[in-house]
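quick one before i forget lol
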Amino acid sequence: MTDREPPRRRVPGPARPDRSDGRRRPGPGARPVRRPVQPRSAPPRAIRLGSPRPRLRLIGFALTLVLLVFVVRLLQVQAVDASAYAAKAQANRYVVHTLAAQRGEITDRTGVALATSVDAYDITADPTLFTREQLKIDDGPEQAAALLAPILGQDQADITDKLRPEDDELRYVKLAGRQTPQVWKQIKDLRTALATKAETDPGTVNVLAGVLAEPSSKRVYPNGDLAAGILGWVNADGKGGGGVEQQLNEQLAGEDGKIRYAQSGGLQVPTVGSTETPAVPGSDIELTIDRDIQWAAQNAIAEQVEKSDADRGYVIVQDTRTGEILAMANSPGFDPNDLSTADPTALGNAALQDAYEPGSTAKVVSMAAVLEENVATPQTHVVVPNRLHRGDRLFKDDVDHPTWYLTLNGVLAKSSNIGTILATGQLGRNQAEANRVLHSYLRKFGIGGSTGLDFPGETKGILAPPDQWSTSQQYTIPFGQGVSINAMQAASVYSTIANGGVRVEPTLVRGAKGPDGRFTPAPEPEKKRVVSEKTATTLARMLESVVDDREGTGTKARIPGYRVAGKTGTANRVDPATGKYRGYTSSFAGFAPADQPRVTVYCAIQNATNGSYFGGQICGPVYKQVMEFALKTLQVPPTGARPANLPVTFKP
């Protein structure tokens, strides 16, 4: 046998470590290791979930309803009520403000401004910016009103009411109109200070954030009370409240414009377009009055009213040839810049609004009728007794006298009531006819009718038809009692005589200058012949005797170097408060130069209680002062002609 090594037996090696799960990995040829049989636990009970379909259906149904509501609302907003909601949105987003037109100026005949407008502001507010939602406080309106009241000069409670209106949606209120730029600057500075403090101090609220301003204008009268009765005033709404401001308000006011813009928080949104209709400025009105003559007239009547302790007085200056009014002054007057201090009884224009019995200045109409009807001449003899019985009355003159032997010229010069009754009695075959004739002349001279000025509040006076004259009126109307006039009517009578017997309607406006700068003259005044030129010239000479003759009643109206025609008047005065006679109306009327008339001046003073009440004594000096100034201002030279010197008396 060969030497072979016997086969070796494979000796198992050391066992390998267990695996992490505790099992030994069998080696080659190893027997599988049996796993220990572990006791079996009972399987867990299965949880059966409910079906989700019902809940999904419910949620889907609810969402469907919600979507349906939104769809319906969307259709309503975008289709059914689209225009209404669009309009409402526009109304809330856009605001429309009025652009006030610049009011035209009022000037005198030389272009001097008597009424003008300056920049101003309307202080406004948005009430919705004062609510608790906006300011986070309850008393926003009260706090704002407390700050604004002393600046605006208004009651705090009134401002509070405006800032807390009943209408919660109201977005615009006017707190004060036509305030000066200084007032608006005060409010702006205070508003800015509050806003600055609110940025650093959480406890500070800018309660003025909702206060705004709109550009406007304020009416100013540079000369104070000068010609206030003519000019009138502008009320809080920017409309004329009296005088020319009221009469020509439409021309002066122009046409307001409008601006429409988007706003946010009460302020304009600059990035959103705006639309604007520009305002059209008003026309400038040029009056016929002369500022300097107006000043002289106003100063003279004011001094005499104060000196005489009278109720009031008026002076009118008129160009005899054109009818233009050069001055119309009243005393007392008022300052249209500050009506709060004005006497309510002084507002208006008393020279046109007062109706009173003129007295002897009306005798010139009676004399014109007598001369024009050729029933007497200036030299006609008139025997004037101390008393005259007519109807149910016994008439007398202002002074007791023996029988006077006067010419018709003397009746006018000495202002005899009895002589006037006797002269006018010749106008008809009987008293009734004489009344009708005299009435016709009164009407032709403008008594009882409109002056032609169409001035606000103007009175026509009172002149009854002749068949309605009482027994006493038949004899008192010839010397100026029982008939009522205004001062302009009285002045117009004398201007008619001065103009050769042709009455020219008084005018107060020369023309208007529109926004385009073009001047449009006022229409020509109406002219009408009342008496012949011969009668007018004769009357002018007779009126000279009143002033020039030593027996005349108007000697205080003499003007050295000039021939002056005039007439005094002293009438019993009806007290407006009681309707009974109390006191006197004193007056003087005339023109100069008597032979080449240029200027008429009429003065009347009501109820003088200190010193004389005779017209020649208290109105004669006013006439002289105003007439002298007017003649110099207009550069009217003396004529140099000698006066007529008609006889006043005759020897029986």
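fyi The CA atoms of residues 141 and 160 lie 5 Å apart.
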